[in-house]
């Protein structure tokens, strides 16, 4: 922890005087589908306002005082957990997106944050941002933790601490009519046009594959689009051959396209931590801020109590379950291999 921490109240005061553009990005703040705690108990409606992306379920959690006592005093005393979500501009179902009421953040990531906050006896307050500004919020202290499909990497550990909660698997998406498949060999990408989210872990892996292929005398094209909807339109129109993204998002897009003129398919998968390690998605905090251990304890409490499994099942993510939450487990190596 820093020897001269920034007081929590002034950081929030700065947020109050933020620009109108920032205020708009926070329009989806608040607990949304989380009922107010009653006698140390919170009920979260998982999958609320999800437009069919989840099987809605009510999950009840109780405050665990032993875990709550481990929280940094300023967070415990505030009664709130400021949660960063990187769902701007268009969201990414089923992970994180604005619900059918056009204001509440829903998705697997916000819902897990609600459950964890319930264990900690805190009210979650969501701060929606672009992917880049998600990390700016953590760096500045405006948000306490990011729950936003963030991959544990060794590079990120230079600035952040991680409490893992889900497997990180990437997937290639193509049109069903495209015979191309990916079996883990980067040479399969030669001559292809692919898209990926800018600044993401999967972009880093794709760029490493491109560098290897170029060293072998071949290449492929990477094209960028402002959001997932634009990338899907590019795939439909043939502007790109394939899209690389988180497996839950790709599977969602495949299912949504099933009865359309341009049905999609999953064309291959890859670990988010490279060829030699299973990738992990993790709650992400500023390094040494004292929050990561109670977060991991809260997640492990949910795993032991069965609420974690209910959450995964509601969002159809059972295949991505982990046996336990770990603090700073091995992540994507610095060389992306």
From TrEMBL:
UniProt protein name: Amino acid ABC transporter, substrate-binding protein
Pfam families associated with the record: SBP_bac_3
CDD domains: PBP2_MidA_like
UniProt xrefs under SUPFAM superfamilies: Periplasmic binding protein-like II
PANTHER family: ARGININE-BINDING EXTRACELLULAR PROTEIN ARTP, MEMBRANE-BOUND LYTIC MUREIN TRANSGLYCOSYLASE F
Membrane-spanning ranges: none
Organism of derivation: Saccharothrix coeruleofusca
Coiled coil: none
Keyword flag Signal: yes
